[in-house]
Amino acid sequence: MNFLELLKHSQKPIQKRVKWAGPDMSVRSSISARHMETWSHGQEIFDQLGIERINTDRIKNIVIIGINTFGWTFINRSIEVPKKVPMIILNSPSNKKWEWNTDNNEDSITGDATEFCQVVTQVRNIKDTNLKVEGKVAEKWMSIAQCFAGPPEDPPIKGSRYIKEI
Fold it and tell me: What is the pLDDT tens value at each position of the chain, 166 positions in all?
């Protein structure tokens, strides 16, 4: 989807479904997904150039896609979807506290929102972050998280994705 198509979609009701490579999605989700793809591929460029990226709270869209694709991650691998999404408490780039699923005390993910985005977009291995992951469901999810369409892809090998020193 190119920029002009995005503009055309922006005039439609946000809940209208549009076609995509993966499952159909709402206009709002489609636009957020393009943001996620641009951000994740951009992270790869920052890493290769040895530049630390300065993020803004706009990455909240990517966090939400990551959470919304919890079930997809398991379905895509033919694994039964756990009944409850882990509790997620993240610090935003502006140091605001973002919280989801606070009723789940068994499984949780806490830490930096940027690192969460890096894991769900597979530009970092969970073991290369400081995210605190507790519970079997949270551990499994973060070990295979994939918020983009397509066949299952394994996250990068621990230590293989980082900001290069130039």
Answer: 565 665 565 666 667 777 766 677 777 777 787 888 999 999 999 999 999 999 999 999 999 999 999 999 999 999 999 999 999 999 999 999 999 999 999 999 999 999 999 999 999 999 999 999 999 999 999 999 999 988 999 999 999 988 888 7
Pairwise CA distance, residues 7 & 2, whole Å? 9
| Contact present, 52 and 164 (Cβ < 8 Å) | no
Please tell me whether residue 2 adopts helix, strand or coil conformation.
Answer: coil
pTM of the model: 0.87
Q: Around Cβ 90, how many Cβ atoms within 10 Å?
A: 22
Q: Which two structure tokens, joined as six digits, stand for 126? A: 């969970």
- Reported as type and span, the H/E element at residue 89 is strand 87-91
Which one-letter amino acid corresponds to residue 80? E
CATH classification number, 3-144, choose in 1.20.120, 3.40.50, 3.30.1050, 3.90.1200? 3.30.1050
Query: How far apart are the C-alpha atoms of 38 and 43, rounded to whole Å?
Result: 9
